[in-house]
Amino acid sequence: MNAPDSPAPLSSTPLSTTLQGRHFLLPVERRAEEFAESLARHGARTTIAAPLTVIPTTNDAELLHTTGTLANGGVDYVIVTTAIGFTSWLEALDAHPELQAALHRTLESATILARGAKPTGAIVNAGYRPDFIAESETTADILEHLLARDLTGARIAIQHHGAGDENLEHQLKAAGATIHSIVTYRWDEPRDPEALERSLRQTADAEFDGVLFTSAPAVRHWITTAQRLQVWDSIRQLAVESSVLFAAVGPVTAEPLQAEGIVPLSPERYRLGALVKAVLAHYSPEK
After folding, report:
1. What interhelical angle do 216-228 and 232-240 show, nearest 10?
2. Of 10, 81, 120, 138, which is least surrounded by CB within 10 A?
3. Taking the model in full, what pTM does it have?
4. Residue 49 backbone phi and psi in degrees, to 5
5. Residue 94 CB partners (closer than 8 Å, separation 6+)
6. Domain range annotation of the chain
7. Adjacent-strand bridge partners of 55
8. Distance CA 29, CA 48 (A)
9. How many CB atoms neighbour CB 210 within 10 A?
10. Cα-based torsion angle of the residue sequence 231, 253, 187, 162 in order, rounded to the nearest 10 degrees
C-alpha cells in the first residue's frame, strides 16, 4: 500500500520527540503502516512508496503439485527462509486435509533448517523443531552447514522468499542434491509507480532525512528505477556524503546498497522494531 505523508495517527501515543521535524521515506510493502506509526510516535513524518508488490501464490497449482511430490516422495532437508512463507505454505493446505497430513508426516521425519529467529518461531508454532538455525539469518550459513555433508542424492525442499535464491539452488545441485522449490509469494511491479517515481525524485532533491529499507528485492528495484529515471547518481552521492540517512533492517537487505558503495545503518537484531531503535539512537541528542 502506498500512502502520502503520514503524521502520527490520532490513536498513537507519543513516546518521544526525538524524530520531530524528520521526514522518512519507507520503500516498504509489508507492515508499512506499522512501520510508519512506530516512527510517528517519535514525531516523524513518513512517506510510503513501495517499489514492489507482494503477490500471494498459495492457490497456485504448481505449489500444490510440488507439495504433493514432497509429501508422497519424502524429503531429506527442508530449508525455511521466511516465517510468513512457511506459515502461508501450511495454511494453503487447510483446504487439502489429506495432502496436509501427508506433508506433516514428511516434515516430522525431515531435517529442518531455519534462516534465523523468525523462521524458527514459525517452525516451532507449527509444531516442529528446527535442527539447525542460521544465527547470521542468511542462507550462507545454511549452505555451509549442508555442504559439509555428502548431498549426493539428497532431496532438499527450499521455502523461498519472493525473489528466490538461485545461488543457493545452484550450489546444492552442484553438490548432488535434488531441489524442490516452494514459493508462497512473489514480487511484482508496484501498485503505484507514480508514487515511487515521485519519491525517488524527492530523494534526489534531499527532501527526506532518511530512506529506510526492509527487503533486498525492494532495494534492488528501487535502485534500478532510480537509474532509469537518471537520479541514482544524485541519490548515491547524498548517501555517501551522509546527507541522507540510509538504513536497512539486516545484512541481506543491506547488500544491494553496499554493492553501490553505501554503508547503511543496520540494527544488531534484524527486526523492524530494532531498526526503529537504531534510527532513534542515530538522531538521539545524547549521541
Report:
1. 120
2. 10
3. 0.73
4. -150, 90
5. 100
6. 23-52+191-283, 56-187
7. 186
8. 8
9. 24
10. 160
Number of residues in the chain? 287
Contact call for residues 108 and 71 (beta carbons, < 8 A): no
Amino acid at 270: Y
pLDDT in tens, the chain (287 residues): 344 444 444 445 788 999 999 999 999 988 899 999 999 999 999 999 999 988 877 677 888 899 999 988 889 999 999 888 899 899 888 889 999 999 999 999 999 999 988 899 999 999 999 999 998 888 899 999 999 999 999 999 999 876 567 889 999 999 999 999 998 877 889 999 999 999 999 999 999 999 999 988 899 999 999 999 999 999 999 999 999 999 999 888 999 999 999 999 999 887 889 999 999 999 987 75
23-52+191-283 topology per CATH: Rossmann fold (3.40.50)
